[in-house]
UniProtKB/TrEMBL annotation:
Name used for this protein in its record: Uncharacterized protein
GO MF term set: rRNA (cytosine-N4-)-methyltransferase activity
Family note: Belongs to the methyltransferase superfamily. RsmH family.
PANTHER family according to UniProt: 12S RRNA N4-METHYLCYTIDINE METHYLTRANSFERASE (PTHR11265:SF0), S-ADENOSYL-METHYLTRANSFERASE MRAW (PTHR11265)
Source organism of this protein record: Turnera subulata
InterPro entries reported for this sequence: RsmH, SAM-dep_MeTrfase_MraW_recog, SAM-dependent_MTases_sf
Lineage: Eukaryota, Viridiplantae, Streptophyta, Embryophyta, Tracheophyta
Keywords: Methyltransferase, S-adenosyl-L-methionine, Transferase
The UniProt record lists the keyword Isomerase: no
């Protein structure tokens, strides 16, 4: 019998340390509302060419100068094409058809979250008979619901998230998925904890599972649309709100504390290392100077500081928005210790896998993707190679390609190692159609590792 659901509301009130619950088959139906995932942090703008246009309109400009400018432009264009080609080479674009029956009705309810690369995630687990599945980043349960529906053989499901808002959203949706799957043997649990506690959580919930291992684990990193689109959470570059940025509302560190009381050099380090912001030193100084005037107390104060500084140094809206996006990203990563947590958790997720089990991770920026790629290589004992160019890896790829059934046709090139196999030598990226319809997906990269059978 499927277990009875626990109110997600109740769940959100539970203390973090003991917050797990068991889902049931509550007949309450979920109405899938129109949804959106426009993330202000990922806004892109048309390239401004005003300065160049003004220069060519100058009647005093001589011909040779013009020639020089156009050859510079050509060189820039050639460089951009070259970089694009390198990018393409280093990834495998999904050729899956965009199947919007997997998606909630698109782009109207900005309270909702559209799962990224859903058909590709379903593909990762399609060839497996799943007894157990752990979603480390429950969010609105878009991925979880689809996996539950696609695997009626599932016996144990665990959904983890640090954010009670995610649990409230996911609860009814999971109920609905469990009813649809008509799977009376499924035991489903929600855990309001950081995924770095995955191993102990599984052990507490299901000692048997901790022993046999989990068949499938998913991490879909970053923020949900429910988080970004609520100004009160402080993630939005555009809407004003408190400088919070905590995914776990019980955590003590906020962005405001970092900006107003951390040592100058630490503020600078965060901007440089987590935001990859070239203007980090100037920004660090402005942030520290703002402390003399009472500090920064809202996202719009931070945004104004960035806008004032960047308009002067780089010019234009595009410049300051991009800088603001990098600064907000840096603060969010620091507040939630995202990179440290990810690095440690990948290893513990792999340890929790059953033989032949798969761990799939979707990342959204290069810092995360680098960690995933390197951790996978380290796990299989190939950490010293670059993992992408060695010809040795190609032998493995042809071998597994021959063995693949149609359900594993998505696997292209692999990296084989001692303890397992990386099934995505190059990360899979969203289809063009998905990128067009869901801007948030544009930076997504999916990597998958399989434990030795
Ligand atoms: C991109 S959303 C996941 C969306 C989900 N896959 C879906 O289909 O609706 C990421 C979620 O992971 C959660 N999260 C991020 N880091 C976490 C961590 N270290 N532990 C637990 N949850 C985390 C966030 O609170 C957020 O709800």
């Amino acid at each position: 019998m499927a277990k009875r659901i626990m109110s997600s509301r109740l769940l959100s009130l539970r203390p973090i340390s003991s917050s797990s619950s068991t889902l049931n088959n509550n007949p309450t139906r979920l109405l899938l509302l129109p949804s959106t995932t426009v993330s202000p942090n990922l806004l892109t703008f048309k390239t401004s060419t005003t300065a160049a246009a003004a220069a060519t309109d100058d009647p005093t400009e001589t011909k040779p100068k013009k020639k020089k400018k156009s050859s510079k432009k050509k060189a820039r264009e050639a460089e951009a094409i070259k970089q694009q080609q390198v990018k393409e080479k280093r990834r495998t674009r999904s050729d899956k058809e965009y199947d919007d029956s997997h998606f909630p009705r698109l782009l109207e309810d900005n309270e909702d979250h559209v799962p990224v690369m859903l058909p590709e995630v379903l593909d990762v687990f399609a060839s497996m008979s799943l007894r157990s599945f752990v979603d480390c980043t429950l969010g609105a349960a878009g991925h979880s619901s689809a996996v539950i529906k696609a695997h009626p053989e599932l016996q144990c499901y665990v959904g983890m998230d640090v954010d009670p808002v995610a649990h409230a959203k996911a609860g009814p949706r999971l109920d609905d998925a469990i009813s649809c799957a008509n799977n009376p043997n499924l035991r489903a649990h929600l855990v309001l904890k950081n995924f770095r506690h995955l191993s102990s959580s599984i052990h507490d919930l299901h000692p048997g599972l901790s022993h046999s291992g989990v068949d499938a684990i998913l991490m879909d990193l970053g923020m949900s649309s429910m988080q970004v689109n609520n100004p009160e959470r402080g993630f939005s570059v555009i809407a004003n709100g408190p400088l919070d940025m905590r995914m776990d509302p019980q955590a003590s560190l906020t962005a405001q504390e970092i900006l107003n009381s951390w040592p100058d050099s630490e503020v600078g380090r965060i901007l440089r290392d987590y935001g990859e912001e070239s203007n980090w030193y100037l920004l660090q100084n402005k942030i520290v100077q703002a402390r003399l005037r009472g500090g920064l107390n809202s996202t719009s104060e931070l945004r104004d500081l960035i806008e004032n500084l960047t308009r002067r140094t780089r010019g234009g809206r595009q410049g300051w928005i991009k800088t603001a996006t990098r600064v907000f990203q840096a603060l969010r990563i620091a507040v939630n210790d995202e990179l440290g947590t990810l690095e440690k958790s990948i290893h513990s997720c792999f340890t929790c896998l059953a033989p032949g089990g798969r761990l799939a991770i979707i990342s959204f920026h290069s810092l995360e993707d680098r960690i995933v790629k390197q951790a996978f290589l380290n796990i299989i004992g190939r950490g010293d190679g670059d993992g992408e160019e060695s010809s040795g890896y190609m032998e493995g790829s042809s071998k597994i390609r021959g063995d693949n059934g149609p359900k594993d046709a998505w696997i292209r090139q692999i990296v084989q190692g001692r303890n397992g196999t990386i099934l995505t030598k190059r990360p899979v990226t969203p289809s063009e159609e998905e990128e067009r319809l869901n801007r948030r997906s544009r930076s997504a990269k999916l990597r998958v590792i399989e434990k030795l059978r």
